Inverse folding.
């Protein structure tokens, strides 16, 4: 099921955070949602997953099964990795047979016996990704998933996201241009709550130049 957004607006107080956003995302695309801080990326994602409501007249259709990794990954540091994922699986009504395969897929096998609070930032992000993948969602929404990672962790998480995009639609928000070029098939650039560009990566000669031109 594709993602369809039509005439999406969002006000927070007097601030018009999202302005007439219309967007269609086809099945299997890996979309880079790119923009400076405050562009509206996180707000758009929160509306897509149902955490926030859009203004009246907006239309947002997303697949019924979607996974979400917020920018501030809300984990329980005192729980063990495997224990936490099994707990979250029960909360989401899972059948109890997903956790081991997800631990393997996101590269947590050697860390599964540890407390989450003992893990590096990169491995905590993997736990969050595993949680977002519970239920095998059609759509995976990742808000700044590589913020604060060191170069080795960056490479690992980007490779994992590319792999996850082989069998589902992925929307990835970031303000890092290299991230979009490394991971995504298409970029949507937001600035001041508006879509300023929407292009396939292969059709862009210089993402840095395009970004600079549309976010002046």
């Amino acid at each position: 099921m594709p993602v369809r957004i039509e005439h999406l607006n969002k006000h927070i107080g007097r601030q018009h955070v999202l302005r007439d956003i219309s967007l269609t995302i086809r099945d299997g695309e890996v979309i880079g949602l790119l923009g400076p801080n405050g562009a509206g990326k996180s707000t758009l994602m929160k509306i897509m997953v149902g955490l926030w409501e859009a203004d009246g007249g907006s239309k947002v259709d997303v697949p019924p099964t979607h996974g979400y990794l917020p920018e501030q990954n809300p984990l329980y540091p005192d729980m063990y990795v495997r224990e936490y994922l099994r707990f979250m699986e029960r909360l989401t009504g899972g059948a109890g047979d997903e956790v081991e395969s997800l631990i393997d897929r996101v590269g947590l096998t050697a860390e599964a016996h540890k407390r989450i609070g003992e893990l590096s930032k990169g491995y905590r992000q993997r736990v969050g990704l595993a949680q977002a993948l519970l239920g095998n969602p059609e759509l995976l929404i990742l808000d700044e998933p590589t913020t604060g990672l060191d170069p080795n962790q960056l490479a690992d998480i980007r490779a994992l996201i590319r792999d996850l995009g082989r069998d589902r639609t992925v929307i990835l928000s970031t303000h890092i241009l290299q991230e979009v070029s490394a991971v995504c098939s298409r970029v949507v650039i937001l600035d001041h709550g508006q879509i300023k560009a929407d292009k396939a990566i292969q059709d862009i000669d210089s993402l840095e130049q395009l970004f600079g031109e549309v976010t002046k």
Summary: Residues 151-164 form the longest helix (14 residues). The helical segments are 41-48, 81-91, 99-105, 121-132, 151-164, 177-183, 207-214. The two ends are 35 Å apart (CA to CA).
